[in-house]
Sequence to fold (246 residues):
Amino acid sequence: MNDARVALITGSSSGIGAAVARRMAEAGMCVVINSATSVEAGEKLAAELPRAIYVQGDVSDPADARRVVEATVEEFGRLDVLVNNAGLTRFIPLDDTEAVDESVWREIFDVNVIGTWHMMKAAQPHLKATGSGSIVNISSVSGSRAMGSSIPYAVSKAAVDHLTRLCGATFGPEVRVNAVAPGLVDTPWYDEAPEVWEGSRDWITANTPLCRVGSPEDVAEAVFGLAHAAYTTGSVLMVDGGRHLV
Ligand SMILES: NC(=O)c1ccc[n+]([C@@H]2O[C@H](COP(=O)([O-])OP(=O)(O)OC[C@H]3O[C@@H](n4cnc5c(N)ncnc54)[C@H](OP(=O)(O)O)[C@@H]3O)[C@@H](O)[C@H]2O)c1
Fold:
């Protein structure tokens, strides 16, 4: 078995996932980069890191989820840390009921909730085999507060929080399951809604305890810490500059 620990980060061609991949690599871990569509960006990041591969796969497809996990174990011989970061949203004001149809619910839940489950299920036996496996799910402050880019998105992150608690209660003692819930983070996520980004950034800067938006590195540091916090399971850690307090 490979001696170095191995981290698989879904949705890591960009933003928070890419920062988590860099943080794990800095700590000497072997890293698996994944995305569904941005293959070139994923391959480029993998080439920059010392021991990394890129594996394309859509987490909402159970066969893809299994294939990504299998490719990880085939390449590096083990899996120690799974970070479920792949996610998507639609920017729909919370009071625009008409704009939210069934397809929006299904699209968001397929990736954010069911995709997270597919990955957890496929990875569980390999994480268990290490005796100290760890899963960190990327949730959102909108999973526990009445805010967010759309109602289906916020509800999907509430589901991720509870999935984290339920699996924290059942995957131990060999596997710990935790989540990080970011606030507003500066990533390409907001490229399609620059007005949402600008309004939210100004509000956060003026009204929250730490007076700034988050960086992908802020979130990556919390993910790294939680991934290695040996006596923590079933926890959801807010990484939002205190946004949830106001
Ligand atoms: N930015 C924020 O303010 C913020 C706040 C709270 C929570 N979050 C959460 O943080 C996570 C990452 O967001 P980000 O801001 O870093 O966004 P981002 O830069 O847009 O990155 C999203 C990543 O997910 C991948 N992805 C999307 N659908 C996928 C699928 N079905 N299978 C595999 N990969 C998929 C994307 O790649 P492709 O689309 O190319 O496949 C990309 O690599 C998400 O779960 C999001 O909900 C973000």
In short: The pocket of NAP is lined by residues 10-17, 34-38, 58-60, 85-88, 111, 115, 138, 140, 182, 184-185, 187-189 (CB under 6 Å). Strands lie at 6-9, 30-35, 52-56, 81-84, 133-138, 175-182, 236-239. Residues 6-188+215-239 form a domain with the Rossmann fold fold (CATH 3.40.50.720). The first strand starts at residue 6 and ends at 9.
